Amino acid sequence: MSFFQNKDAYSALKFPEFRAFIVGNTLFTMALLMQEVIVSYEIYKITHNPLALGLIGLAEVIPYISLALFGGHYADNRDKRKIMQISLSIIILGSFLLLYSSLQLDAQSPDFHIYTIYFVIFLIGLAKGFFSPAASSLNPFLVPKEVFANAATWNSSFWQLGAILGPGMAGFLYAYLGLAGSLETVIVFLLGVMTCLFFIKKRPVPPKAVTHESIWHSLKEGIVYVFKTKIILYAISLDLFSVLFGGVIAILPIFAEDILKVGAEGLGILRAAPSIGALLSMGCMIYFPPLEKAWRNLLLAIAGFGIATLVFGISTNFWISVVALFFTGAFDSVSVVIRQTVLRFYTPDEMRGRVSSVNGIFVSSSNELGAFESGVMAKLMGTVPSVLLGATATLVIVSLVALNSKDLLKLQVAKKVDSVD
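Above: the chain sequence. Below: its structure as tokens.
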């Protein structure tokens, strides 16, 4: 049976540990995105400086990139769940520090409050350098190989659900509960993630992962594998450059406050729109996975992302902007499912942590460095021109990749999925 004709849309959800994992992942996503929206809006209200928004992404990506490869090495050689628990504890500690700073806001200077926010974001970046590779490499061990693709879709769908609810709630929480009340909600969600981790059993380290080679050799091995596996390299590179240049999430507070003039509530809607599009797209892909002619679908999805971003940049109408963001999420979700399925089926078990860490560096570079790039370009050339330039760059890049990857158009990812049955 072809994978394109879905066998059991709910097969991955039959495994209790996988259910605990995706619930925890949803709460984790909600918490961190809520916190991101809250502190971004707070910083922009204080500074009215686009560059200050870009620095949020830079503060997170520098420590993450610095540690992610080491995090992947330890995820392959240590108890993945324990790594996640320790890292999550550090993130919770940082959130408590943000809460304390917000409660002392009247007694301290705004600059000190902003520096505290940047410090906590830096701390979260450090913790995610270990948490993310451990989580990504643990996920495939929770279900049999024959339901990997279905698990990838459900995992992405729940992630998108968190990405809808988190930002959407953040704007309203900020408006009605204030800064401190919003941050308290974030902490409650993070404690919920910790609870979910206790429902996942400790997993043994794959025998081939245990090595007496130096850590540097181990890291090199993971990097070399990614760069010699063309489909993995191209898939994560496309994500890197499309979101790096075409992403607009970091500068949405500017659109909400100065261009569309819709305030915190409008910001919540704008921030949630891409995830609503992604979630609906994921719902369709549960029944109609995009793995038949996967590479063609990936290229078309990235091109659609760029076109939707162009429309958003041109628009001065709130609801047209919301629809454009909706489609950026819908197109991006297709690339997410294809990329995650490719990573699962083309990565050996003993290298999942290291390959996940390389993928995480590419993804974080696109998100956090993209946030920094958005802030810098908005500062230098204006908000709208920076969005239009980024969207154009995305379309140019996907065109160049399409011309140089014609051999991947023949690749049958769907048949590789079927071969494990």
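Confidence is low (pLDDT under 50) at residues 1-6.
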